[in-house]
Amino acid sequence: MTISTPADDSMPPVIELTNVTREFQVGSQVVRALDGISLTIQHGEMVAITGPSGSGKSTLMNTIGCLDTPTSGSFFLNGNDVSGLSDDQLAEIRSRQLGFVFQSYNLLPRETALANVELPLKYSGGFGGRRRRETARRALDRVGLGHRYDHKPVQLSGGEQQRVGIARALVTNTDLILADEPTGNLDTKSSSEVMKMLQSLNDEDGKTIVIVTHDPEIAGATKRIVTFRDGRIIEDRPSDRILQRGQTGSQKLEIE
Length: 256
What we know:
Distance between the termini: 28 Å
Number of helices: 8
Shape: globular
Radius of gyration: 18 Å
Structural class: alpha/beta
Mean pLDDT: 89
């Protein structure tokens, strides 16, 4: 069963994979990390990709994040076929159309929160220094860190560092955020804060959010759960909270 949120018919899906495989050569063997995956994610969805280690979920994230290319099958991002693009073309898409949130934050330790959030704007070009700073300030304000512009990572808690990472993902105004185990290094309280922020970005700002996680509580805080095993999708369903509360996706979820 495939679950998707109703979308404007005039808009293509954000993510559309059709019969995608990804194979790796390991010694004399060929390992199929993705085995004929077909998956559609519409604008405004909040989706958890879950499954045991080695199930293929990280390979899927690398594929939809344009960090890797399928061995076979097709991958459309916002209606554009990206399956056969060059490395430079994929890098351009990553800088302009995707926001990434990482488990280990990936912040530059000697730079302030503001400077870390500015980085994607420097790479994408077209922004003068004053405009970069103002845009980065707005992103930090959005995640509740307007009082931490000049703090370096060592001066921030783990939850605050991850919110800087979320602000960095937001700064280019992308509609798609890919979060790889975003709470993996956080305690329970910080995990809850980060998930509430991601929920808010989905519910209030309409961001499409895809989260890779092994944590069933984090998966349950999204709106749709796609479960992988042995490179295949074995389940695709609404989260229990959606089912229990009879929600259609317009009401904010709570993580407890």
